């Protein structure tokens, strides 16, 4: 049977010939006159929708709402997993910097002692005042950061009896007296406080507690076992009986925290009288210091 040529109206044929897309279809070897009106109508449909190809490419290149929601959910899950990890890593770095501060402060104390016949610095209520009373609280650091409300907050600066002022010629850097984990403002160069407690102002019911002004030979234990500088402690007691942390009964002392955490298992840095520094949980550090009588 002889193929019949596809006859289209003049206007429709002109529209097809002007369309590059329709010409590609009609120039295909498979597009023969045997196909009849089918190819002509298909070519005309392409001409009637000149932007269909662009719409198809845009549709293929975009995202659906479900796909976007899935991506957002994955990002949220990863953030929930990774952010606590980053926070712990940052706190570990701050704790290491705090240990470096205590190390240099302990070394500065040893240099001071080498210039003053191996005696520890004195603690005073004023910069040029007499030494603090070793039998009273003396309004020094171990009386600070007491709270009667829960939950406990972060510890603030503690008073030192101007001990840090006596070590300034050996430290020469105010930033060493500020723990990186302590958010409160610390101004050691102008005030009687820093981020660290010291046993040189430890006061209790016994004079065997305060190291200020004493000779190293009076130590009951070796310097490697005697705490000298410690992180500040925030402590909760429901009563107002004890004004001093080391005089507070264990039944009244219910919660403690350090600048590195708000729970009893939070790490706490301790610098010892021989110059070394180590970390232990705050409740263990407290009991260790409490049960240790530094002097004979």
Tell me what the structure shows:
- With 296 residues, this protein is an alpha+beta fold.
- It folds into two domains: 10-61, no CATH class; 89-290, no CATH class.
- The chain is 36% helix and 10% strand.
- The chain has helices at residues 10-18, 20-26, 37-48, 52-61, 65-115, 163-171, 282-290, and strands at residues 146-147, 196-198, 227-231, 233-236, 255-258, 267-272, 277-281.
- It has a four-stranded antiparallel beta sheet with strand order 2-3-6-7.
- A hairpin with a 4-residue loop joins strand 6 and strand 7.
- It is elongated and about 80 Å long.
- The N and C termini lie far apart (126 Å).
Query: How far is it from the N-terminal to the C-terminal residue, by CA?
Result: 126 Å
Low-confidence stretches: 1-8, 32-36
Q: The biggest beta sheet, please?
A: 4 strands, antiparallel
Tally of individual helices: 7
Mean pLDDT: 78
Amount of beta strand? 5-15%
Q: Major sheet: order of its strands?
A: 2-3-6-7
| Count of β-strands | 7
Number of domains: 2
The whole-angstrom Rg is 39 Å
Helix content: 25-40%
By secondary-structure content and strand pairing, the structural class works out as: alpha+beta
């Amino acid at each position: 049977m002889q193929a019949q040529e596809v006859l289209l109206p003049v206007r429709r044929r002109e529209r097809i010939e002007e369309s590059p897309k329709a010409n590609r279809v009609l120039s295909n070897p498979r597009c023969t006159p045997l196909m009849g009106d089918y190819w002509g109508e298909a070519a005309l449909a392409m001409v009637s929708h000149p932007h269909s190809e662009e719409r198809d490419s845009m549709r293929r290149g975009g995202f659906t709402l479900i796909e976007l929601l899935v991506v957002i959910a994955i990002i949220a899950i990863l953030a929930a997993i990774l952010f606590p990890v980053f926070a712990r890593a940052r706190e570990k770095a701050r704790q290491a910097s705090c240990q470096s501060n205590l190390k240099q402060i302990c070394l500065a104390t040893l240099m001071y002692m080498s210039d003053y016949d191996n005696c520890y610095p004195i603690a005073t209520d004023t910069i040029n005042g007499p030494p603090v009373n070793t039998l009273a609280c003396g309004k020094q650091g171990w009386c600070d950061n007491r709270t009667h409300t829960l939950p406990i907050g972060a510890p603030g600066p503690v008073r030192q009896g101007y001990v840090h002022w006596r070590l300034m010629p050996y430290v020469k850097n105010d930033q060493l007296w500020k723990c990186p984990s302590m958010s409160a403002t610390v101004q050691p160069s102008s005030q009687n406080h820093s981020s660290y407690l010291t046993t040189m102002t430890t006061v209790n019911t016994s004079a065997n507690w305060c190291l200020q002004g004493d000779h190293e030979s009076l130590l009951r234990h070796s310097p490697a076992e005697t705490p000298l500088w410690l992180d500040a402690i925030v402590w909760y007691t429901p009563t107002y009986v004890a004004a001093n942390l080391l005089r507070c009964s264990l039944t009244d002392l219910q919660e403690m925290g350090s600048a590195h955490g708000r729970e009893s298992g939070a790490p706490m840095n301790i610098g010892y009288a021989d110059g070394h520094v180590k970390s232990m949980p705050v409740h263990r550090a407290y009991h260790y210091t409490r049960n240790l009588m530094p002097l004979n």
